[in-house]
Design brief:
This protein is of the alpha+beta class. 30% of the residues lie in helices and 26% in strands. Helix 3 packs across helix 4.
Length: 204
Amino acid sequence: MKFLVLASASPRRREMLNLFPFEVVVEVPMVAETVKPGERPAAAARRLAREKMREVVRRRGDDAPVLAADTVVVLGEEILGKPRDEADARRMLRLLSGRVHRVITGVAIRWRGKEQIFSVSSRVVFRDLSEREIADYVASGEPSDKAGAYAVQGLGGALVSAVHGSVSNVIGLPIGEVVEALRALGFLRGLAPAPERRAGRRRR
């Protein structure tokens, strides 16, 4: 049976990849998730994914198929990372309330010396949130380790009124595009892209 090395600690990415006919082996990369001054969000997501992938490839060797990803939440040109504490989570949710933001995931895949590196952007529309809703959501603990302080696949889904583009991208991995990239590398032959509606998708 084929295997794919997932260079990520994210259980959500692993769950999505577990739907496919290969074993998923997790190996967490030791890469600091920091954005360089003046770096554009999509470029930062691609760079961080590439660094994570190559760090694991150095350990595993070039024969192992390795996939890494990095997801950023962007409001305007400001990148909202994981909240430092509950006060920071409340600040982020107030910023997102009633507004449209982007979720960009950079993906880097390497197999047998060939690479596919790309990013996918989705637009997310938040409802107008009351202070009580924000406080209750932060108290749930869900925002603590999530970029932008919410998880669309969890309780945070109730904060969102619409997603334009790949929903799986907002969760952390654009599955349709990942399958296309794996097929381009020859890792998956004959497997159709995941049946996901991706209206308004932008690929960078």
